[in-house]
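Task: encode each sequence below as structure tokens.

Item 1
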Amino acid sequence: MFTIASSALLFSSLVIAMENTQKDYSFSLATKNDSAAIVDLINTQATKDADKIVILPESFRLSAIANASNKERLFVARDITQGEKIVAFKKLFLLTDNQERNEIMQDEIRCIGSKSESTFAGMIKKGAVTTLNTHPTFGQDDLYIYNGGDFTHPDYRKNGLNKELSQHAFSTIFSDQLSKQSPARIHLLFGLVQANSGSNVGEKGDRAIPLADVFSNFIRQVYPNTKDDISLTYHRYKAFMPTFDPTSSECKPLPDEKAIPGYGCILTYENNADASQSGKVQE
């Protein structure tokens, strides 16, 4: 049982931890000059989690990271006490190209197309998940955000660093590209391997729950008058993490039977005032 004293001590500790995180780290878009350091983090650390994060064949890693950085799709956290050492990275970007969006939705998330197989439909509100008989609507004028792979050095985990990096990434997207828009719906597309999806939907280990919290904060930036108790629809589809042979000379994912099983996921916020005005994407 928490006493007043122990609760105060816990709160003080959390405040100190948050202050230390803000003080010791900086967050920014990755640049091409960061590519070698990010690849080094992948080669020395992230490859140990190859069952949870997409790892390209070794000969393609540097060019892929440089390309993502040039397109401003990659964010990094730096330890300013260690000479701006890169200790975490995250991929997040707006899907503005229709062909790229449809390919990701069909081949990776698998929410459309012949391979689509729904495994869950429901809602997240205040961290609680309820089951609903719903199907997502995809409008041509909706906003689509792709939440790609992220990784934090093991020595820097469990201090809120990943959450702060995610918040920075979402805020950058808002300030750079969204401040004058008010889309009918916002869809967040992401993948989960089974190890990061919880024993059951919405239970401990389901990374969609903390991601929904960060996404909700982003929603409040896009729609300043939104109520605090934001409701997000949550859909899961049977999918597989793109899995590669690390020594391959071609950057081609392995077939499903050799890939790591998981789920393609969508969190959607619907702005009811505008949603009815949006057309539907061809499935």
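Item 2
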Amino acid sequence: MDKKYRFEVPYNFADDYIETMKPYLENICIVMVQALNADCTNSREEMLKKRNAYVPTTWEDYASHIHRLTVAGFPVGILFQEDKVFEAEVIERYVDLGICAVITISDSLAQYIKLHHPHITTICSITKTLTFRDYFEKDLSMYDESVLDFPFERGLSAIQALPKTMEYNIIVNNGTCRYDCPYKKLHWFDFEKFVESHAGEGFCKLPEYNFMSKQCEPFMIFYQQDLRYFDPYIHSFKLQGREYTTQEIVANFLYFLKDDYPLIHTRAYFDDAIRTGHLQMNFDNHQYTSIAADTEDCFDGAIKIGCLRM
């Protein structure tokens, strides 16, 4: 392992998951498992169906997956992605599985866990879409951690200014604009632009770089080398993709974990060629090397002018 970064990784209910991911256990702080559909709706249900991803439909099957994960030593966090009051009986069923965290947007669920099971970490899901101001103005005392909304991926100065009353996590293989956006420096370091943009249309106004635009071909957000700039302010880095195959999940994971892992395996969104195993793409390695060098210059320049305090 080249870096001791901590990652939250998704679980896909695949038979090869435990064996494939166990060698990297020391860098995994949470394996995120979605709650059973009968107990809670899932925001990525359509993606799971589109990719024919297997998801348990009975509690017995579901519990057996959690049991295998915990026996293998994986720290399990359950995702409750619905803002509602959950019955205590439902919550206790998951607690009895030996979970270590709950990821949710339900304040009442987080409060219940904090009151009755304080050893379990409560994490505010990104789907709560908290703004910078929300962290100062809303009561978030029921949460130990929070997954920052996508604009924070281009708002390092804002992350530095967040309240120190909780820990913060950030998604590194998703977001609002490409890693090679020519305005990357402004997106990551300009505090005033971050606050202004977050309340408006979002960051990147260039359609070829903005992930919300049909003109953009999506790529990985962060370079592995970029993580060191976020690491002092981030508790863990989150990888999304519970609809991915195990090989796709581990490809994303290893890119961020190892300095020398090939960039060709790091696309956040896998097109049909990757899904079918045809990974030989016509990427220009020299081009990516050049972009990486530009990234270094960008960060170094920001440090020199005092935008980044470490």
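Check on item 2: Residues 223 and 292 are 8 Å apart (CA to CA). The two ends are 24 Å apart (CA to CA).
End of task.
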